[in-house]
């Protein structure tokens, strides 16, 4: 499928809600990174942010909003191709994303 010329329409209210969440995460994570670099935040602070701000659920909602638009406007074959591309992502907890120096579970 040639994705460069395809367009997907989504309700503006859904796009704005997703952009608001993404903007909060980007700005907050940047600030947390700066605090970690200066020594005023640690991994616990980042974990607390992720839990307190419900990051996982909000990101899942953003993914769902986009997926619903794709499902409604593309063929099953096109959606299957997109799913296969997404499955090729990097996922935390797989051997290729954790180096021995950062994996502290042992």
If you had to describe this structure to a student in words, what would you say it looks like?
With 106 residues, the chain is mainly α. 63% of the residues lie in helices and 0% in strands. The chain has four helices and no strands. The chain has helices spanning 12-38, 43-52, 55-73, 76-86. α1 runs antiparallel to α3. The longest helix is centred in the N-terminal third of the chain and has 27 residues, at 12-38. It is elongated and about 50 Å long. The relative contact order is 0.11. The mean pLDDT is 89.
Number of strands: 0
From the helix content, strand content and strand pairing, which structural class follows? mainly alpha
Give the overall form. elongated
Strand content: under 5%
Number of DSSP helices?
A: 4
H and E string: HHHH
Average pLDDT rating: 89
Distance between the termini: 43 Å
Poorly predicted residue ranges: none
Portion in helices: 55-70%
- Radius of gyration, rounded? 18 Å
Biggest sheet descriptor: none
TL;DR?
The protein is built from four helices and no strands. The longest helix has 27 residues, at 12-38. Helices cover 63% and strands 0% of the residues.
Describe the secondary structure blueprint for this structure.
Layout lengths: L11 H27 L4 H10 L2 H19 L2 H11 L20
């Amino acid at each position: 499928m040639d994705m460069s010329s395809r367009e997907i329409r989504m309700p503006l209210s859904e796009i704005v809600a997703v952009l608001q969440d993404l903007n909060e995460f980007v700005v907050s994570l940047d600030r947390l990174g700066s605090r970690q670099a200066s020594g005023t935040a640690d991994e616990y602070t980042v974990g607390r942010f992720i839990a307190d701000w419900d990051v996982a659920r909000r990101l899942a909602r953003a993914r769902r909003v986009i997926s619903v638009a794709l499902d409604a406007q593309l063929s099953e074959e096109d959606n299957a191709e997109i799913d296969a591309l997404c499955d090729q992502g990097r996922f935390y907890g797989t051997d290729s994303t954790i180096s021995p120096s950062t994996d502290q579970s042992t």
